[in-house]
Amino acid sequence: MTVRLGINIVAAHNPNMGQALMYISGSLGEDFGGWVRNAVGSYGQYKAQSELTRFAAKNGLSLQELNLILALNSKIGLEVAGTTYNSESGTVEGFLSREKPGGIFGRASRYIGVLWDINDTLLNAQGLLDAVSLQVINSGHTGHLTGHSLGAWRVNNLVRQGFIESGTLLSLPGFAYPAAGTSGACATLDLICGTGAMTIFRPGTTSVESPSWWRWIYRNHTIGTVDGYGERWPG
Fold this sequence. Notes:
It is a single chain. By secondary structure, the protein is α/β, with parallel strands linked by helices. It has one domain (2-230). The chain has 11 helices and 6 strands. The chain has helices spanning 2-13, 15-27, 32-58, 63-81, 109-112, 114-125, 131-139, 150-160, 195-199, 216-219, 227-230; strands at 85-86, 91-92, 144-148, 166-170, 182-187, 205-208. Strands 1-2-3-4-5-6 form a 6-stranded mixed sheet. Helix 1 runs antiparallel to helix 2 (15-27). The mean pLDDT is 88.
């Protein structure tokens, strides 16, 4: 585990070396198909880092400095707005789902937490672990997890790097690619996961029916309104 966490630190400072090490670490023990799946995912993460490098440069920062800011801010978000990881159900949620029992913001934490959800999206796009993912590791959980939306991205990165054995990915955002050892679902009209059009290019992903052709952000994306997501969600 220490070695894998060290790889994340390397990736934050040296994208090329970090992506190579994450790819090798997460692919050990996989068959040829697993190596190919992880290679596609690593390429996507590399492209994300390239775009963020340009963004950072425009703002007078290096990618390393930007990632340090993002990592520290993610930790602040966990402390202030709470987590999306539920150890009892083995689930990790995404946007608008943070909870901080006893926190000063109460149920408003999920709305205030959007600021950190965006922050964590930038980390996950690069394959880097955010504070919620690190919380999973620190909890000692190494088995199966189910994630939705940004939570699916977190689970995907944890599987890809070998921190957990397997994952179910519900509405994995379209910029990510399913790691070897995962399966999932995407609703036919859910734009977050690329709709049914992208599902055919994602191994292990099942296309499930969308409830409506309108109000896609809500009805075609959430666990409570897409039957195919609800059926796969623990509890």
